[in-house]
Design a protein that fits this description.
- The complex is a heterodimer of chains A (488) and B (314).
- Chain A has 488 residues and is of the alpha+beta class.
- Chain A folds into 2 domains: 395 residues, no CATH class; 61 residues, Dna Ligase, domain 1 (2-Layer Sandwich), CATH 3.30.1490.270.
- Helices cover 31% and strands 22% of the residues of chain A.
- Chain A has a 5-stranded mixed β-sheet with strand order 3-24-23-20-19. In chain A, strands 8-7-12-13 form a 4-stranded parallel β-sheet. Chain A has a 4-stranded antiparallel β-sheet with strand order 15-18-16-17, with helices on one face.
- In chain A, helix 2 packs across helix 6.
- By secondary structure, chain B is mainly alpha-helical.
- Chain B folds into 2 domains: 151 residues, no CATH class; 162 residues, no CATH class.
- Chain B is globular and about 55 Å long.
- The model of chain B has no long low-confidence stretch (mean pLDDT 88).
- The chains are: A alpha+beta (488), B mainly alpha (314).
- Chains A and B meet through helix 9, strand 8 and strand 10 of A and helix 1 and helix 6 of B.
Chain lengths: 488, 314
């Protein structure tokens, strides 16, 4: 198995140029793969899958009584981000997070941006993600979005675009670290030669970010990770992050509220908690304030947060800035708060709530992608060019009924990257989710989750719908001259 | 540590030990049958179920008491909470909630064992089970080694150790009970050659034959029960286990600076075994002694739950 018959089929390819030759940054990797004996690549793929299975990074197959467990598909051919491209992305992400954080703080306090008419007031205040419980609040150090996982895609023009800002409880970082741990053994030579930047110290950065966010005056905060529990699909990640930071992993039932302070139930009695990295959605966080039927949350925790006795990361209410309708205004938001143009572009977005834009959307459903503003995971989505007339009718009806709930974007020609499919290497569409931490400063982990749509032609990368993942190699600066190798 | 985590790690230890001991039970019975040269049809398997305490469940769901039925019930029955399969599954579920506490190597060892037993359990035909039992014992030993060598000997470590030792004390007692059910000891049988074969099998099932030999040389009823109940040095004897569990609890209490009811209950149990002598035990009846011991172990378990694992809201 090698690249001899690989065809980019006219798509932008992450590793291969349109003329079929490797991109120079990817050359050492491709050369190494091409030099492998015939069945070796397949063997390494199997070995990587076996390692993931042994480590128990698995999920139970729904409805299977025998308790079969599977790993999330992982492809051993890494995706590569050259250092120059990474520098631009890094700057773009820092800029974006800084502006979005200022936006959230403004929305829950002075609402200057609404008064100045830069973002429509109704659009913001009508969002389900706007929490009136957060009005007038400012969390410690003014930081609302401590942890972000921004979804990027590369279009046919070779440019990266921000697809979604995930400002609530972005997941997937554990796969970044685990994929890397396994990948290092898969192509050790290429890995070393290409000076791939490390990601394994994410736990240190995360811990430092959370410590920095502690309530005023707390010198040695007790930090915990709050999980919905063992049956949550991301439980593995929650336990992994607690392990990486060496902090306790709590469930709602392990926490108790007394006198507006949060305590852990420990073997020595009740112990005060200062910072909670919560992996529970806003709606389930506090049954006294939000969903009454939530058994996952901690009754009274919102009052503790409002009184400044505990830090919640991310803060409740951040969803207001990753509402897909508000997303359309991020370039204006960046300009408003920072006085700069957005470094990393948005995908042009039509807001169905706006009458003129809605008309355009309804007339062009067959060429647009329609998304529900508050659903993620690839649900509530219409991909125009791949839809049937009946599906388009259903969406047209939904849009007319609840225009605030939908946006539309042009169909992007997502980039592809070489992926092992059976006994061949074929191009598959990918996206990219880097992780950003907002602590003493804004830090972007040099790596990220590359999700790949394993089905031929598919654009849906979500793991719930046939997606897999890859390691992402962000290359360092001090790369040995690639021209030198090319000449060799 | 979190009360829930302390409870989970204690139970992880208990389930692993339980799985290991079920494997040992079945081994002792196989040895006995082979040594007594019984044919397969007249071989008794039912005593194993009686000793496990799950005889009602077994009678309700199985038509016969053949080797195949008993072995399936004790090894792979997913409904029987004390089958090897169920115990390892429970140990793994507990381990899953402890991944931020136990070293990854421990989680991976439990995970691997779970997958191996699952694989075997899906086979239609039950044969070559020795491999399964050896795998269970090896994994259990590997985990003990990892616990000793790569996990910090702190609070969680002592809860784990205490769980292991309390379970082991209980199971060593039950292994003695298997023998009791198998062949009610009559006075004239005690010194017969057959009896020494029996006791040799019991010792082998707890990997204690060689250690026993060094102390008593020849196997007989009185010496084997002395060894398995009262030996202060053999790590599977009841006295050794209870002393170890008591020590673990004392360290936890000192470490945490707490004063709990479990201390008094544990001390009662320890003092009872510490002052016990073999003659009165045998005169009163071994089975009766084991009954009382198991009752007292349960009391200690309950008081641990109230003292550490179930924190009431103030």
């Amino acid at each position: 198995m090698n690249f001899a018959n690989y065809d980019t089929e006219g798509f932008y390819d992450e590793l291969i140029q349109p003329n079929g030759r490797p991109r120079k940054e990817a050359l050492p990797l491709i050369q190494q793969i091409n030099a492998l004996p015939p069945k070796e690549l397949r063997r390494r793929q199997k070995a990587a899958e076996h390692a993931l299975y042994q480590q128990g990074i698995t999920f139970s197959v729904y409805g299977d009584k025998k308790g079969t467990e599977k790993i999330f598909p992982f492809d051993i051919v890494p995706r590569i981000v050259p250092s120059k491209e990474w520098k631009t992305l890094e700057a773009g992400l820092k800029q974006r997070i800084e502006a979005l954080n200022l936006f959230i703080d403004d929305i829950y306090n002075d609402q200057k941006i609404l008064k100045d008419g830069v973002v429509p007031r109704d659009l913001v205040l009508s969002s389900e993600c706007f929490l009136k419980e957060c009005v007038g609040l400012s969390p410690p150090k003014g930081i609302w979005i401590h942890i972000t996982g921004t979804d990027l895609v590369r279009d046919g023009d070779g440019e990266f675009y921000v697809l979604e800002d995930n400002l609530r409880c972005p997941s997937g970082i554990s796969y970044v670290l685990q994929n890397r741990a396994i990948q290092k053994h898969t192509f050790p030579n290429a890995f070393q030669e290409m000076r791939v930047r490390p990601v394994s110290n994410y736990g240190d950065h995360l811990y430092e970010t959370l410590r920095h966010a502690a309530p005023e005056g707390v010198e040695k905060p007790t930090v915990v990770v709050l999980t919905p529990g063992i049956y949550n699909s991301a439980y593995y990640e929650h336990s992994f992050l607690a392990q990486q930071m060496g902090v306790m992993l709590a469930q709602g039932s392990d926490l108790a509220v007394r006198d507006d302070k949060v305590y852990l139930r420990t073997t020595t009695g009740f112990q005060r908690v200062d910072v909670i990295y919560r992996r529970i959605d806003d709606a389930f966080l506090d049954p006294l304030v939000f969903r009454k039927d939530s058994l996952l949350g901690v009754p009274g925790i919102m009052d503790c947060f409002r009184k400044g006795n505990v830090t919640l990361a991310n803060a409740p209410g951040t969803g207001i800035a990753d509402d897909k309708a508000v997303y359309a205004y991020v370039p204006q938001i960046i300009r408003y708060y920072l006085g700069e143009d957005a470094i990393t572009a948005n995908v042009p977005t039509f807001i169905c709530d706006d009458e003129k834009q809605r008309k355009h959307v309804l007339e062009n459903l067959d060429s647009l992608v329609v998304k529900a503003v508050n659903l993620s995971g690839g649900y509530g989505m219409l991909i125009g060019p791949k839809s049937t007339a009946a599906e388009r009718d259903i969406f047209a009806e939904r849009i007319r009924k609840a225009p605030r709930d939908y946006i539309a974007q042009p169909t992007l020609s997502l980039s592809r990257t070489p992926t092992i499919i059976g006994d061949a290497i074929e191009g598959r569409h990918v996206d990219f989710r880097p992780y950003i931490l907002y602590g003493r400063e804004i830090y972007v982990l040099p790596g990220g989750l590359t999700r790949v749509a394993l089905k031929r032609g598919s654009l849906v990368v979500n793991s719930s719908q046939g997606g897999g993942s890859k390691d992402t190699w962000v290359l360092g600066d001090d790369l040995r001259s690639m021209d030198e190798i090319l000449d060799a | 540590m979190l009360s829930r985590a302390a409870s989970s790690i204690h139970w992880m230890g208990r389930y692993l030990e339980r799985a290991e001991n079920v494997a040992r039970f079945i081994a002792v019975n196989s040895h006995l049958i082979l040594d007594l040269r019984l044919d397969r049809d007249s071989a008794q398997w039912e005593p194993l179920v009686q000793a496990s305490g799950d005889d009602e469940d077994f009678a309700a769901r199985y038509a016969t008491q053949t080797e195949a039925d008993v072995v399936r019930f004790l090894t792979f029955d997913p409904v029987n909470p004390n089958s090897i399969l169920s115990c390892i599954k429970a140990a793994r579920e507990n381990a899953r909630t402890l991944r931020e506490i136990i070293p990854s190597e421990m989680w991976e060892a439990i995970n691997e064992l779970h997958h191996e037993i699952e694989r075997h359990s899906r086979k239609r035909k039950i044969d070559n089970l020795q491999d399964v039992y050896i795998a269970v014992r090896n994994a259990s030993n590997l985990l003990e080694g990892l616990t000793e060598n790569v996990m910090s000997h702190g609070e969680g470590w002592h809860f784990l150790r205490m769980g292991r030792l309390l379970e082991r004390a209980d199971k060593t007692a039950r292994i003695l009970d298997v023998k009791y059910f198998h062949l009610l000891p009559r006075a004239d049988y005690f010194q017969s050659p057959y009896d020494s074969v029996h006791w040799g099998a019991v010792l082998k099932s707890v990997s204690g034959f060689e250690m026993y030999r060094q102390r008593f040389h020849r196997a007989n009823y009185k010496d084997v029960t002395t060894f398995l109940i009262l030996d202060p040095e053999f790590p599977r004897s009841i006295r050794f286990c209870v002393n170890g569990a008591s020590d673990a609890l004392q360290r936890i209490v000192r470490m945490l600076g707490v004063d709990v009811a479990a201390t008094a209950e544990m001390e009662k149990l320890r003092a009872g075994i510490d002052t016990a002598e073999i003659e009165p035990i045998l005169q009163g009846g071994l089975h009766e002694f084991i009954d009382v011991l198991q009752f007292n172990l349960n009391i200690v378990g309950d008081s641990l739950f109230r003292s550490f694992f179930d924190l009431e809201d103030a």
